[in-house]
Amino acid sequence: MLEQIRPQIEQLIARYEAVKAENEHLRQELQACEETGAGLRKQIHELESEIETRKLAEAFSSGTFNAEAKAKVDTLIKEIDKCISYLEEA
Fold first, then answer.
1. Confidence band (pLDDT; 50, 70, 90) for 69?
2. CA 14 vs CA 18, 21, 75: distances in Å
3. Which 3 state secondary structure label does DSSP give 63?
4. Coil, strand or helix: which one is 64?
5. Is 24 inside any structural domain?
6. Whole domain around residue 54: which residue ranges?
7. Count of domains observed in the chain
8. Helix, strand or coil for residue 90?
9. Burial code of 38-51, b = ≥16 C-beta within 10 A, e = fewer?
10. Does 32 have pLDDT greater than 90?
11. Is residue 51, in this structure, part of any structural domain at all?
């Protein structure tokens, strides 16, 4: 009876090992994708910051200080003031 079950047990063990190996491969692939995603999010953030900087620089270099540039400067000043108040609290 044991001899009849042995091939089935060996087959189950082989399947388990195959699934275990595939699982490890998928974990590594997921980690690589997460790292790539984090890098791309960082790059997006940097590019958005660069766009804002260029818009602000363009507004100042055009010689006319338009409402959009003034609003951006006001926002930056408020953020700086908020940072200063946080530092004073610490």
1. confident
2. 6, 11, 63
3. coil
4. coil
5. yes
6. 2-64
7. 1
8. coil
9. eeeeeeeeeeeeee
10. yes
11. yes
Question: Could you tell me the sign of the dihedral formed by the alpha carbons of 77, 82, 85, 86, in that order?
Answer: negative
The pTM for the full model equals 0.54
Residue 73 counted as domain residue? no
Percent of the chain predicted with pLDDT > 70: 93
Task: Give me the amino acid identity at 72.
Answer: K
pLDDT, tens only, 47-57: 998 998 887 77
Q: What is the pLDDT of residue 63?
A: 62
- What DSSP assignment string belongs to 35-67? HHHHHHHHHHHHHHHHHHHHHHHHHHHTS---H
Tokens of 30: 């997921």
In a domain, 47, yes or no: yes
